Amino acid sequence: MSTKFLLKALPAALLAMGIGGAHAEYNTPSSAQAQPSRLSHADRKFIEEAAKGGMAEVELGQFAQQHASNDEVKQFAARMVKDHSKANEELRQLAQEKGVTMPAGPSHMDNHEMTKLSKLTGADFDREYMNNMVKDHEKDVKEFQKQSEKAKDADVKSFAAKTLPTLQEHLQMAQDADQAVGGKKATRTSMR
Q1: Fewer CB within 10 Å, N or C, the chain?
Q2: Same domain, 13 and 29
Q3: Domain residues for 13?
């Protein structure tokens, strides 16, 4: 082979190897996992907000189990800890797969609610906790319903749809417990 031919063929061969090497590297399992999915802003925000809310449900539930005076409220709180811990783990895995950084903890508003609850005792605590749980679950049901229909990412949509029935059940339980303790939400509902 002539030197002239090699000099012409070398750049083409190197280019072909570079493309081939990049293609092979891109398709390896480890690099595919390192490449985060491109989520829409709304889907990413949903994951982040759902994570904060789920963490708050667990913390508030643990606190309520220790401080509630009504047995129905304590049972509700235990259910929140159990169900939201499970959902939080599923959401953490989804966030990891999608390249979303999980928040460090509940939102500022949820921390404010915890502070407010920590100053109450007995029936006052029960009413405030249940009022908060009704409002929170009304908001959550609407948001998960919306995401189960409109999320752009199929996995985010699936998570929202799978979690929605549990949240709807929580809302009904919260309304029942709120009524049992004579909470604000129960009073407004019964006045309609």
Answers
A1: C
A2: yes
A3: 1-35
CA distance 2 to 186: 91
Grade residue 186 by pLDDT with cuts at 50, 70 and 90. Answer: low
Place of tokens 């889907």: 43
CA pair distance 176, 122, nearest whole angstrom: 18
Total of domains in the chain: 2
pLDDT tier, 35 (very low <50, low <70, confident <90, very high otherwise) = very low
Q: Cite the DSSP H helix spans in the chain.
A: 3-26, 29-34, 41-67, 71-98, 108-118, 122-150, 154-180, 184-190
CA distance 84 to 61: 9
What is the C-alpha to C-alpha distance for residues 114 and 163, in angstroms, rounded to an integer? Answer: 24
More confident residue, 120 or 25: 120
Residue with tokens 């509902």: 189
DSSP state letters, 136-181? HHHHHHHHHHHHHHH-SSHHHHHHHHHHHHHHHHHHHHHHHHHHHT
Closest CA to 77 of 104, 56, 49: 56
Distance CA 135, CA 141 (A): 10
Q: 31 and 108, same structural domain?
A: no
